[in-house]
Write a structure and sequence with these properties.
This protein has about 170 residues and is α+β, with helices and mostly antiparallel strands. Helices cover about 40% and strands about 15% of the residues. The chain is built from six helices and four strands, in the order αββαααααββ. The chain has a two-stranded antiparallel ribbon with strand order 1-2. Strands 3-4 form a two-stranded antiparallel ribbon. A hairpin with a 2-residue loop joins β1 and β2. It is globular and about 45 Å long. The model has no long low-confidence stretch (mean pLDDT about 85).
Length: about 170
């Protein structure tokens, strides 16, 4: 994945340099056929929580940089090799977790890919990558902040589990 690449000059290296995050991952999460989200997850430090707007801005600047500089096949190939290593040496899962993952993959992948689906990267497709990059816009953005200490922004309560949460519009700036 071009966005979660960990090399020098990447968004992750910049956020770590500023001590705003410890990890960054992104993935396409398919909830149903034809419906899913491209998620960028950032594990924030305490200082990072005070710079959420700056982090969002940096991520969009990085996406723009990728668009302008073009898709780098070597990054894709490196990420593909890393995913192969991760798949080959994956920790043993508990049976329930493994069955749950396989059942989920059966809905989205052909039978030959149910164990590797969503893990292995098999085809470099710059057109598809550009299509996805062009969908990553502020207009298509939804930010979810999970934090155990920011109760002051939680002015709503979920009906069933009584979980507190809050919603607000993302600033156009």
């Amino acid at each position: 994945n071009l966005i979660s690449h960990e090399g020098k000059g990447t968004i992750l290296s910049e956020l770590r340099r500023r001590r705003w995050c410890t990890a960054l991952n992104c993935d396409h999460v398919k909830y149903a056929n034809g419906f899913g989200f491209f998620e960028i997850k950032v594990d924030l430090t305490d200082d990072g929580f005070t710079h959420i707007d700056d982090i969002v801005k940096l991520i969009f600047q990085y996406i723009k940089l990728i668009r302008v500089s073009g898709i780098q096949q070597w990054i894709y190939e490196e990420q593909s090799r890393l995913s192969e290593i991760e798949f080959a040496f994956e920790d043993e899962r508990h049976a329930m977790s493994l069955v749950s993952r396989i059942a989920s993959c059966m809905r989205h992948y052909p039978m030959r890919e149910i164990l590797s689906g969503g893990i292995l990267m098999e085809e470099f497709d710059p057109e598809l990558i550009n299509f996805i990059l062009n969908m990553l816009t502020v207009e298509n953005l939804r930010i979810l902040i999970v934090d155990q200490t920011s109760y002051y922004k939680c002015n709503l309560t979920e009906e069933i589990f009584k979980t507190k949460y809050g919603c607000e519009k993302v600033s156009s700036s």
